[in-house]
Design goal:
Blueprint: H1 9-17, H2 28-39, H3 43-56, H4 60-84, H5 91-98, H6 101-136, E1 153-154, E2 160-161, H7 167-182, H8 184-209, H9 233-244, H10 250-256, H11 264-293, H12 304-309, H13 315-349, H14 368-384, H15 387-415, H16 430-444, H17 448-472
Antiparallel strand pairs: 1-2
Helix pairs in contact: 2-8, 2-10, 2-11, 2-13, 3-6, 3-9, 4-9, 4-11, 4-15, 4-16, 5-6, 5-15, 6-7, 6-13, 6-14, 6-15, 6-17, 7-13, 7-14, 8-11, 8-13, 9-16, 10-11, 10-13, 13-14, 15-16, 15-17
Length: 479
């Protein structure tokens, strides 16, 4: 039996063309909205402050540009794959078609870091934003029920506490999971409304906050390195790019919805590239204003926007924006949990995971049991894990997935040169190789501790593959 048996491309296409249990109801605007929903929030509302305070300072705007460059290379590769292989599964499915089952399993297991742990990261930021918002209204939640027991949390009054459980983070994960179980059309509709609100928030903050920038906060643009790799200086820009790369994973989640797109060959590139372009411009402007209003040394908090809003004397603006941020972070969780469930759906259809992950609800036509399992798993991370750990785990998992997709394009061009490609990545192999180089560089910027977590996580995945998945695979017997 071969570890590198591939899933035949003609079989993948046959699966995408036949009637399937998932409902095709997403058009190009919905896909762009899905991408924007996943992109705006995860990084700028949670990890931007941490990356500025510990890695890049005001130079974080350069880090966002570096991250965007890596995203463009990967995004072009995702666009080609998503039109060639328009079914659920994203990088997992692409790896199965190009590099074989073992690599597909590795990337599928890696995507848990990208989506599930990513959703947990955002839920922690959502919780801290809620705490700050309620504090401004004179309501303080019990301190022990709003923070992880493994990381100190700074309260709105300046005190530092260790909690027992992050209960608000758990509750929002449960609510989003229940929404996803009810149907893709309902989930996409809710996301569209939230995205309109969320983009409006960013634009209002940029427009009003620009006049409250203190030029001294932006100097020097690149603070001197402290003697440690990744702690400011040019290495800090690279490390900062690796951390806030988390912000860009929304366009990757668009590719997981290919099996629910109305016309995937036309709509997928629009959704992927369109969401990238919109969000990159907003990120750069937002970061410039944020680090201009608040000194980067003070931004090491889970809800940096709330800190910036305290410097703007418009109480109504603070209330409206914090509400919108809560809604925006909710849409990020929705996109991530949607993406994870669709990856598991594909892996289960290939018999690499138990059948329960591909059980579709007869009425809602969603993989509801998969959503239920993910709800429990993500809730545990949200309840107890520190944001600094889960955020970096998500970033390194995302970057690894992008590297695999870029390599996959080169392989597919050689093994399937005549296969139909409604969208073609330009300048192959240059663009994919540049994508690999930039993304690996940002992985290196995340430091040895995150590499160690990645290696341990992959080792656990390999144990599961060799003890359970390999013997049950649909394609091993044909190898």
């Amino acid at each position: 039996m071969s570890l590198f048996v591939t899933k035949p491309l003609d079989q993948i296409m046959a699966e995408s063309e036949k009637d399937n249990s998932l409902r095709r109801s997403l058009g190009p605007l919905s896909l762009v909205s899905l991408g924007v929903g996943g992109i705006i929030g995860a990084g700028i509302f949670t990890l931007t402050g941490v990356a500025a305070a510990t890695n890049a300072g005001p130079g974080l705007v350069i880090s966002f540009i570096l991250a965007a460059i890596g995203c463009v290379f990967a995004g072009l590769c995702y666009s080609e794959f998503s039109t060639m292989i328009p079914i659920a599964g994203s990088a997992y499915t692409y790896a199965y078609a190009t590099m074989g089952e073992l690599i597909a399993w590795i990337i599928g297991w890696d995507l848990i870091l990208e989506y599930s742990v990513g959703a947990a990261t955002v839920s922690i930021g959502w919780s801290q934003t809620l705490v700050a918002f309620l504090h401004n209204l004179g309501i303080d939640l019990p301190a022990r029920l709003i923070a992880s027991p493994f990381q100190p949390a700074t309260m709105p009054d300046g005190s530092t506490i260790y909690g027992i459980i992050n209960l608000p983070a758990v509750l929002i994960v449960v609510l989003v999971s229940l929404l996803l179980m009810t149907g893709i059309r309902e989930s996409a509709g809710a996301n569209n409304l939230i995205v309109i609100l969320k983009v409006s928030v960013i634009l209002v903050f940029i427009a009003i906050g620009w006049s409250y920038i203190h030029p001294a906060n932006l100097k020097p643009l690149i603070p001197a390195n402290t003697g440690k790799f990744g702690a400011f200086g040019y290495s800090g820009l690279l490390a900062g790019a690796g951390v806030i790369f988390f912000a860009y994973i929304g366009f990757d989640a668009v590719s997981t919805a290919a099996q629910e797109a109305k016309v995937p060959k036309r709509d997928m590139p629009i959704g992927i590239i369109g969401s990238l372009l919109v969000c990159t411009v907003l990120f750069i402007l937002y970061t410039h204003v944020l680090t201009g209003i608040v000194n980067y040394r003070d931004l090491n908090v889970a809800a940096p926007l709330s800190l910036a809003l305290e410097q703007i004397p418009h109480h109504w603006l603070s209330i409206c924006m914090n509400l919108a941020v809560l809604a925006g972070l909710t849409s990020v969780m929705l996109v991530m949990l949607l993406g994870q469930s669709r990856v598991f759906f594909s892996m289960s259809n290939d018999r690499l995971l138990p059948r329960l992950f591909s059980v579709v609800h007869p009425r809602f036509r969603t993989p509801w049991l998969c959503n239920l399992v993910l709800m429990i798993f993500v809730s545990l991370f949200a309840a107890f894990a520190p944001i600094s750990v889960v955020g970096s785990m998500t970033s390194i998992g995302t970057l690894f997935a992008f590297v695999i997709v870029c390599v996959g394009i080169i392989i597919m061009r050689r093994t399937q040169p005549n296969a139909p490609r409604p969208f073609r990545t330009p300048w192959v192999p240059l663009v994919p190789l540049l994508g690999v180089a930039v993304n690996v560089a940002m992985m290196l910027g995340l430091g040895w501790s995150n590499w160690l977590r990645l290696v341990v996580w992959m080792a656990i995945g390999l144990v599961i593959y060799f003890t359970y998945s390999k013997s049950r695979s649909r394609f091993q017997a044909k190898a």
